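ok trying this again, last paste got cut off
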Amino acid sequence: MTTKLRTLAASLLLGGALLGSCTGTKTNSDAADLIVYNGNVYTVNDSFDKAEAFAVKDGKIEAVGTSEEIRGKYKATEELDAEGKTIYPGFIDAHAHFYRYGLSLVSADLVDTESFKEVVQKVTEQREKYPDTEWITGRGWDQNDWAVKEFPTKDTLDLLFPDTPVILTRIDGHAALANQKALDLAGITPQTKMVGGLVEVENGKMTGILVDNAIDMVSSKVPAPSEAESREALKNAEANTFAVGLTTVDDAGLDKSTVDLIDNMHQKGELQMRVYAMLNPSQENQDYYFKNGPYKTDRLNVRSFKIYSDGALGSRGASLLKPYADKHNHYGFLLASEQEFRDIAAKLNEHGFQMNTHAIGDSANRLLLDIYGEVLGGENDKRWRIEHSQIINPADMNKFGKYSIVPSVQPTHATSDMYWAGDRLGKERIRHAYPFKELLEQNGYIPLGTDFPVESINPFYTFHSAVARQDAKDWPEGGFQMENALSREEALRGMTIWAARSNFEESEKGSIEPGKFADFILVDRDLMTVEPTQMREAQVLRTYLNGKLVYKK
């Protein structure tokens, strides 16, 4: 057989495999709601097949194939000519803070500030815009981006806002700066001590810096948003995330009241975004969900709890096996006792819930991997996750595979932290940080997310950081620790089908295949072929959920 004939035969075989239900005689099933044709479709099925067209009926993919096959078999009330543009399954963010992001849209945006002076300027502008709020809040500063890479102090805030409480959260959410008024309302003094947190004191006086559990003492005093404000926050978050191609978000850390609100908005048609909810381990959540079990609809899935084991590397709260290279005799800290982690793991296993634990440092990862192993016993399909999995001692890497533990990572953390992470960890440990490829090899899949609003909501940044391991300016040349870069196919799977799998949802979403939700996006370029320098510039032209248009550029 000639090469040309072999190619033709292979094409016909592939077309038949993808088309599936399109073969045979015409029946009533030939009616469809939507036909998408003339596209560069990445199905992200097991074979990573490509197609040209697909039909949608009742919110699900009916058939996939060539444009000629699909248009020849189906008649639809709506057709979309993709004009050769690229189509992917809707992106799934495997770790984000969707609700918190929505709330943050009305706080001072301190991301990318280049000095504390600029932070103060933005906070002052925010106060002028909202002069009557009880508290001034802001989020996103990072002292590592400033010329002076030290934590700021509260002195200026005390002078400007002596009678109004202020709390400004660091980019990672694991440190904050509060003024004296806020500290007074929280009852914090230089003598305040707690497990898993720190009130910074210098020369007997508080600087205003709070780390991890200390933040909660102040943030708990901030008035809770009204139901109307919460609804608005969720709708604003949805609009922005649809615009970047997200159709499912894993919201890491929700209370029952917020879960109920999301469900209510879903039922009323006020919110469309699919949400995989990770519950806070509050007593209320435990009491209710341990009694009633997981909860599932087409748009909401409640079957996991989010646990925090340690803090963040940037604020030196990540729990390390050896001291920080840039802070003598400081190891970071755990946010609870080992016994508390063992107790919650046993409870979650008993009641059939997935355990998803934030673990950054190599000490925290070791502890949680061992606790997971004690509970899980060996290979299993419970899909317990380690969120972030940032620094892994080589002796612990095989535990992910041994106990079927899922590493849930956020590639932009690597490209945000790479400028200073070596200072925290030293030359030896930095080699074992952000080891995405090595983690992938443990179970054969790795879900990817952003951790927004800690990072940008844009999943194209996730893709670029995973593949090129570079920042927005394409630095460093050649990429950061490229031995742990992912291939383009692996990155796309991590943002779609592998993320779905980590949520127990691979049978209903994550790929463009018959029987799955018709969640897909139309993009202005092909991430599989463009130069890495173009990946971050990709634009979503259309986003569809259940075959319905929810965003158009």
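PB: full thing came through this time. Residues 1-17, 19-27 have pLDDT under 50 and may be disordered.
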